[in-house]
Design a protein that fits this description.
elongated
């Protein structure tokens, strides 16, 4: 049973990486000298995130149990791990937010109307390795929370 779980995590992880790579590949590049028209169906990059979304969600959920096993095996300090994961999460989200806001400020003068943060030119800013790492930080923090709950339950039963 453990082998099936490990293989499913590996396959879902590979599909997640493939989906992010495909979004990067199919995101239109913003060209200040070009026409930059946004057509009604002009966001092909999101197609590769929407359809494998259940598998991506499974990967992030299963990583909670993988992180829990890793933390248990390495006997890491729960407090220091939470601080480290939270700090890394804040850095990654801040960096991504900065890039998204900077892109919007840079691109907005080239459009006749106001563009939103999520548009055909910004998919790669939302769906990239940094946001995947931020999501994995959340999975790691949740694994530490589950580990703490299990210890509390075992202490009550004694």
């Amino acid at each position: 049973m453990r082998l099936i779980f490990n293989v499913s995590v590996l396959l879902s992880g590979l599909l997640t990486i493939w989906a992010i790579w495909t979004v990067q590949r199919y995101t239109n590049n913003f060209n200040p000298d070009g026409d930059n028209l946004m057509w009604s169906n002009g966001n092909p990059g999101l197609f590769f995130i929407v359809f494998p979304m259940p598998i991506l969600a499974y990967f992030l959920f299963s990583m909670i149990f993988v992180f829990e096993a890793i933390h248990h095996k390495l006997k890491v300090s729960r407090k220091h791990s939470i601080i480290g994961y939270t700090l890394l999460f804040i850095i990654l989200v801040s960096y991504s937010s900065y890039r998204i806001i900077d892109f919007n400020i840079t691109a907005q003068p080239y459009f006749e109307y106001e563009i939103g943060y999520l548009n055909p030119y910004s998919n790669d800013l939302f769906f990239n390795v940094w946001t995947l790492l931020a999501a994995l930080c959340i999975s790691a923090i949740l694994s530490l929370y589950l580990e703490g709950r299990e210890k509390t339950k075992s202490n009550r039963n004694v």
